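User: Predict the structure for this protein chain, please.
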Amino acid sequence: FLALGKQDLENEQNYLIKSVINRSITIKNRKKKMQPAAWLPEPVATERADADIRNREVLSYSMMVLLEQLNARERAVFILKEAFDYSHDEIAEILGMTIGNSRKLLSRAKSKLGSPGEKGGGSMMGGGEAAAYLERYVTVIRNGDTGTLEKMLSEEVAYAADGGGRIKVVSEFNAGIGEVAKQLSYVFKTFQQKLMIRTAMVNHQPALLFFKDGALVACQVFELDADGKWLKTAGDQEEADRRRPAMIRRIYNVVDPDKLRNFNEL
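Assistant: Here is the predicted structure, written as structure tokens:
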């Protein structure tokens, strides 16, 4: 890029974006056969995000997982349009396609992902509420209160774990209230209860961080069911009485050392 010189490029930013996209596609294809069944993206801490970084520039963790359903060009168009607010004219120029193709790929991507209310909405709680909710969750699971734990799980609850092929996980994927509750209880009792635990916001979703001897060894990201999120109902009761508890819809457990090594707090 530097060797080309500024005068040789009509738009350096577009050239760089296209180069990064092409390089990412190459690396992804090379590693595709080596990926574990339950692949999870690298987490990014957002609880103290820099004021200069717009929230939407760091996608929710659930959305990052869902983006794996898209092919490379659909993903590129979706991120450039939705995260960086590029026009279809600009996207077409960067990716070497027609404006019509850009629109079609965006429509196809949105169709695969579903609406935010259906999939990948993540938590709508504020940082304080989310921390309190997860602290209660930890207390419940530490006390072995399976009944209460199951009540905190949505009927659609699913659990995924990614050890990156280096760390053996108990199960890469589990679904259903009973199975997930059993998995969570076993993993906590066997591996996590003696670790230092703190709450955080990861990709704008509530998370638990697990430390051993000061090193991060696990990052557990939670997606809360939008329908169970502190919803208000009609009536004149106090606000606290007009809320119903959030429910856990997805749990993403990242224990891959490579993905945790670069974990940073923006």
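The first helix runs from residue 12 to 31.
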